[in-house]
Amino acid sequence: MKMTKLTALFAVGYVFLGTQTPLLAAQECNNRQALNANMGRFISHANGTVTDTQTQLMWKQCMEGQRGTRCFGQAEVLPWDRALQTAYSASQAHFAGYGDWRLPTVEELLSVVDKQCREPAINLSIFPATPASSLWSGNQSDPNAWSVDFGAGRPFQSFKAGGKYVRLVRNLH
């Protein structure tokens, strides 16, 4: 079966404290049929969360710092310890009615990597405005912590003091 290449432009609204950044990011996806079929595994709850029926995880649709159904605003880049604090704060605030938000494991982050896409390697219909950048996981090995690069969908270690984006998850009970 021949793969067709689909290139789509998605509007990304980033504003970095007075600096200008591109307003459009190009995402490349192969095999549109497989990409659309993969969408059926996610259930949107219209409250900022989606459930992955394959992994039985509930994800915040937006990264921390973003808001609304299309994840408007600037996602926050945080050091690892502040990312942990953000998960605690979301739990204390009972985001979407739940008090058990946490940083995902590397394996959980890799479960939402869409191998049909790159730049970013995620389904932007499910997780809008996700940059092709790194997200923290809860896995650590002092002085480092693991993250997943959503440019290409690969895990790596980096210093905890470095800044990464954060998307929170919880287990379904």
Task: Describe the model.
This protein has 173 residues and is an alpha+beta fold. The chain has one domain: Mannose-Binding Protein A, Chain A (Roll), CATH 3.10.100. The chain contains three helices and ten strands; from the N terminus they run E-E-H-E-E-E-H-H-E-E-E-E-E. The chain has helices at 32-38, 80-92, 106-111, and strands spanning 5-11, 24-30, 42-44, 49-52, 57-60, 117-118, 134-141, 144-149, 154-159, 169-171. The chain has a four-stranded antiparallel β-sheet, with no helix packed on it. Strand 4 (49-52) and strand 5 form a beta hairpin. The longest helix has 13 residues, at 80-92. The radius of gyration is 16 Å and the shape is globular.
Share in β-strands: 25-35%
Write the CATH architecture name: Roll
Write out the strand line-up for the largest beta sheet, numbering strands in chain order.
3-4-5-10
Report the average pLDDT across residues.
84
Structural class by sheet pairing and helices: alpha+beta
Terminal Cα span: 40 Å
Query: How many helices does DSSP assign?
Result: 3
Keywords: Signal
InterPro entries: Lcl_C
Pfam family, one: Lcl_C
Protein name: Lcl C-terminal domain-containing protein
Provide a quick synopsis of the model:
This is Lcl C-terminal domain-containing protein. The protein is α+β, with helices and mostly antiparallel strands and 173 residues long.
Kindly list the characteristics that best describe this protein.
about 170 residues, alpha+beta, Mannose-Binding Protein A, Chain A, 4-stranded antiparallel sheet, 3-stranded antiparallel sheet, disordered N terminus
